[in-house]
Amino acid sequence: MTEKRGLAMGVLIFASFMDLLDATITNVALPSIRTDLGASGAQLEWVVGGYLLAFAVLMITGGRLGDMFGRRRVFVAGVAGFTVGSVIACVAPTIGVLLVARVVQGAFAAMMVPQLLSSLQALYAPRERAAMLGAVGAVSGLSAVIGPVLGGWLVSSDAFGIGWRSIFLINLPIGVALAAAAIRWVPDTRSEHPLRLDPYGLVLATGGLLGVVYALVEGRQQDWAAWIWTVGAAGVVVLAAFVVQQVRRERVTGSALLPMRLFSDRGFSAGLITQGAFQGSLAGFALVLTVYVQTGLGWSAIHAGMTLLPFSLGAFVGTGISVPLGMKLGKVVMVSGALLQSAATVWVLAVVHGQGDALSTWDLVPALVISGVGLGLLVVPLVDVALATISTAEAGAASGAYGTVQQVGAALGIAITGTVFFDVVGTSYDAGSLRSGLLAACWVSAGGYALAALASLLLPSRAQVHAHQEIVERELAEADPAPA
Questions:
Q1: Would you say domain 265-476 falls under CATH 1.10.10.10?
Q2: Is 198 helix (H, G, I), strand (E, B) or coil?
Q3: pLDDT of residue 341 exceeding 60
Q4: ∠ at Cα 303 (302, 304), nearest 5°?
Q5: 268 and 390 Cβ atoms separated by less than 8 Å
Q6: How far is CA 315 from CA 67, 303, 355, 365, 403, in A?
Q7: Is residue 1 packed enough to be buried (19+ CB in 10 Å), middle (13-18) or exposed (0-12)?
Q8: CATH class in words for 1-188
Q9: pLDDT tens figures, 351-380
Q10: What confidence score (pLDDT) does residue 258 get?
Q11: Domains in the chain: boundaries
């Protein structure tokens, strides 16, 4: 049984790796996609943002489907749909078809990924979960390193003779293998008391977010016409209706998609703002930097991917020191991490401006390493601290809300940063215009990191975190007593 559940977790963790890889691998292919399919700047934003948005709005629903109908069944369906979406993306004849395929990928990833933590809780006793959670964290970090480099190599080497399309083709054999392995090794666990689905909440959340993001992404191309403002305002109104509907559903059925009672906790709300602002800044910055160095400076895709490697290495360093520092200093570590990222982004801005067309990868290394260290300091302890004042009974709902805001923040960050970048670039796409766009976008990202630092100041104190840990340890001891 121990061996089988280990194999099951290996399958689920690798699927999570595939999702994270797909989210990072696409950035380095965007210039090639633009050239091959004649995509506009807004459409390039949708290539990345459409995936994130679909994943965000469906993630909680995907988890509940697994609780209700069996986690293996929903996981296999998610892998199958994700693989089909990847094949459609690979053969897409137009940018429109590619965008549909990316939404399909994101939607089915939202069925696939949530089964990891749900199965972990079902297969492992509380005291056994720490090692597996560490493995999940390690895989997340590994995907950040491998994604840009692998994507750059596939595009630059024209793997399989199909250029950028190879970044989606590799999901076909992986998906088939994952589905077969899941059918054999992943048990079909389910919840004894699953929460009901919330289709009305899902429709409202999707419609509201889509209206806001659509207005942000398409506004520049439509010269900010009155109807664009109407779409954005309608999105805000629909999101307000979603909040009202969620409060009512929570009171009547207790199965709201996003429990609004959680937001009354200051520390938790501060954690959501921190995470959303950080993810948005990071996703937007990575997108515009890769477009600039490839389109503006003529770097190859593998060159662009390797340029991001110092950031990933810095993140590993930051991750290693964040845990001991977090235990001693508390939220000061997260504030420092966000400020380091903000300062490093301004450093990138200064280097790009100073070096101009002579910019090299080595010029960016110090700033990107510092930014990566800041990421590790911020993101590793953030979840625990943000949930420090949330009761154990609410931990599942809080984690779902946290993951949703993480993805929504990334999608909004791409929409906002990309809009600023492509608005400055205009239609020329020459080196000077692209550089001006990158400099403007860097200020947006630096501001987002600064917002994350401010929100971090409102996180629970170290004393509150320690008190919460003692309560959790006591509850776990009572639920899983050590043998005499």
A1: no
A2: coil
A3: yes
A4: 90
A5: yes
A6: 34, 20, 25, 13, 20
A7: exposed
A8: mainly alpha
A9: 999 999 999 999 999 999 999 999 888 887
A10: 83
A11: 1-188, 199-256, 265-476
